[in-house]
Design goal:
Strand order of the largest sheet: 5-6-7-3-8-9
Low-confidence stretches: 222-227
Shape: globular
Number of helices: 8
Radius of gyration: 18 Å
Strand content: 25-35%
Order of helices and strands: EEEHEEHHHEHEHEEHH
Number of strands: 9
Distance between the termini: 35 Å
Largest sheet: 6 strands, mixed
Length: about 230
């Protein structure tokens, strides 16, 4: 679906946030992008989203994504809300993609049934967890090929965090899920670990857990348990 070939991203001051990143992401794949703060996780996500362009290297899509097919889900949902009410937020992406009224209305009603939050409820009246649910549903409703998740469960309690992850996993799109949490990353079939802007691991959790000294060096907590 998308291939990165020797991708680097450098700031104007000459400091590299990412250096020589090469990876391939296939259709429907679910992977965790693991790294400590400042390792380059969000920068890589923004390159995949097209928010940033690489300083060098290539990002090759097959086929080229159409509008709405690559979606970004942020850790703070208030940064990406565009509507006043729950229905407004769900409808925005449908209008942006010029979907016909019947198709859009069916999709919105299905989402409202899944959310169990009143359609006319104003977003300012929602709890943080409810707002994250609505924003995630607004992203899902446009049926993306790739969903880029920048620590979307950071502010949720553990039960709700797992519920959000399970809900997103039920759909067929590919997911890149950014996390600093080793325990959260281990629930994914594939983990890519970043350290100081470089890929230091690409594989499964079973192998990663055996690399105790490397995990400490990369500033991951080996026995991390989410609270």
């Amino acid at each position: 679906m998308v291939t990165l070939q020797a991708v680097s991203y450098m700031l104007p001051n000459g400091r590299f946030l990412l250096k020589d990143i090469s990876l391939q992401l296939t259709q429907h794949e679910k992977l965790a992008l693991l790294g400590a703060n400042g390792s380059g996780k969000t920068t890589l996500l923004h390159l995949l989203a097209g928010v940033l362009q690489p300083t060098s290297g290539s990002i090759i899509w097959e086929p080229t994504p159409q509008p709405g097919e690559v979606q970004l889900l942020l850790q703070n949902p208030s940064f990406q809300t565009l509507g006043v009410t729950v229905r407004d937020e769900l409808a925005f992406g449908q209008r942006l993609l010029n979907r016909d009224e019947t198709t859009s209305e069916l999709a919105i009603e299905h989402s409202l049934a899944r959310l169990q939050i009143p359609a006319n409820r104003e977003l300012t009246q929602l709890s943080g967890g409810e707002l994250q649910q609505v924003v995630a549903e607004a992203v899902r409703i446009v049926s993306p090929r790739l969903l880029l998740c920048d620590e979307p469960a950071m502010y949720l309690p553990p039960v709700r965090r797992k519920q959000l992850q399970d809900e997103l996993f039920n759909d067929s799109y590919a997911i890149v899920w950014v996390t600093p949490s080793l325990s959260e990353a281990l629930s994914f079939p594939r983990i890519i670990a970043l350290h100081e802007g470089k890929i230091v691991f690409d594989g499964n959790g079973e192998v990663l857990q055996t690399m105790t000294e490397s995990l400490r060096q990369w500033q991951f907590v080996v026995d991390e348990v989410d609270k």
